[in-house]
Write a structure and sequence with these properties.
The protein is built from three helices and 28 strands. The strands form six sheets. Strands 4, 5, 6, 8, 9 and 10 form a six-stranded antiparallel sheet that branches.
């Protein structure tokens, strides 16, 4: 488990003759994210009705500035003000990394603050509505923060930067040693997988991109499910695991990447003579059959004559595998003998790539085709 040693403080300040109490509400039992540093309260004794904006800077133990952040302008209309509860008015919160090395450490962990001895200084400015770049400094306060992780969460496979051949890979990581777990607490693991877009670095993908798949598990292994969005040949992905203890993040792994192998060339087959094609156990992104007469011809290998209502699904490969035809209740044409089928393709868009999935005898088979 991760142990987070946390030191917080409050400040009793004077703003134009009024005493102001500033308190933090960070959770000391979990990993701390940058956005949680805005979980603070302002208590105005005697009132301080006006327009303000807040900013803070993080410094390391040598006094070197690492990051600065600020809110939009907001109005304090009562004696109590919570920055988090009023995010609709004071956000988005602007973050500017001053130290590049520290930025990389934060982004690799999903903007969770790395271990270290820090000082955070908050600045409260009185200003005019909409102006959060200048104002009169009303007060400032400093908070020491010491974060130390006593255990790490280590990834195992796929190796960082590796090229794999499977589109449904197996992910593995080492268990978190439960040295600090007490009572009935249990650890779960949240696995998140992101696509890295061209021109991006891996740190950007986990901050800005949506996940293509995520799941919470008790075991330290994930077999990428067939129902999830497929990983695609030639594309690079990032993955990360977070340990969850009693609903809180206890540890975060590094971000690793992998690339799905893509063949240097694709093979195309023109089925001019109505050859009945065998199906594949897994989708093959390198082999494509062109249909030319409005039908796709294929055979299902089986000891018995398969049902005319064999289940099939057609996915649009050019539209993130969107389902375009579902043949659970649709009768397949059987005019050519035992287990020989033809499937009409007239309703599919010409020039697009599709994936046929057939379920027969409890197994799934696949065939890639292009409608000509």
């Amino acid at each position: 488990m991760v142990k987070l040693l946390f030191i917080s403080a409050f400040a009793l300040l004077a703003i134009y003759g009024h005493a102001q109490t500033i308190t933090t509400r960070y959770e000391s039992s979990s990993a701390l994210t940058l956005s949680q540093l805005w979980d603070i309260d302002i208590k105005c004794e005697g009132g301080c009705l006006n327009t303000y904006f807040l900013s803070f800077k993080i410094f390391d133990n040598k006094g070197i500035a690492l990051l600065e952040s600020k809110t939009r302008t907001f109005n304090i209309n009562s004696n109590d003000y919570s920055v988090i509860e009023d995010q609709a008015n004071n956000s988005p919160h602007y973050f500017n990394f001053i130290n590049k090395d520290w930025k990389i450490k934060c982004e690799r962990s999903g903007n969770i603050i790395p271990s270290g001895n820090y000082t955070i200084t908050y600045y409260l400015y009185q200003t005019t509505p909409g102006c959060n770049w200048t104002g009169v400094l009303a007060s400032q306060f400093t908070i020491p923060l010491f974060i130390q992780y006593f255990n790490s969460l280590d990834l195992v496979f796929p190796f960082n930067g590796d090229t794999i051949f499977e589109t449904n890979p197996v992910f593995k990581w080492l268990p978190l040693i439960p040295g600090f777990i007490k009572g009935n607490s249990s650890i779960q693991y949240l696995v998140s997988i992101y696509e890295i877009f061209p021109g991006q670095i891996m740190e950007q993908s986990i901050v800005f991109n949506p996940t293509i798949f995520k799941e919470t598990l008790k075991d330290c292994i994930l077999e990428y499910p067939v129902y999830a969005k497929k990983t695609e040949p030639g594309k690079t992905y990032a993955w990360q695991v977070k340990a969850i203890l009693d609903g809180e993040i206890a540890a975060v792994s590094e971000v690793w990447t992998f690339t799905v192998f893509k063949s240097s060339s694709e093979e195309y087959f023109d089925n001019e003579y109505k050859v009945f094609l065998s199906l594949f156990d897994e989708p093959s992104a390198d082999k494509w059959t062109r249909t030319g007469d409005g039908f796709l011809y294929f055979t299902i290998e089986s000891e018995k004559n398969s049902s005319k209502k064999a289940e099939f699904v057609i996915y649009d490969n050019d539209a993130n595998n969107r389902i375009v035809a579902d043949g659970v209740k649709r009768t397949l044409t059987v005019n050519y003998g035992k287990n020989l089928y033809s499937l009409p393709t007239n309703n599919l868009e010409k020039g697009r790539k599709y994936l046929l999935e057939i379920k027969a005898d409890g197994n799934k088979k696949y065939l890639n085709f292009i409608v000509e």
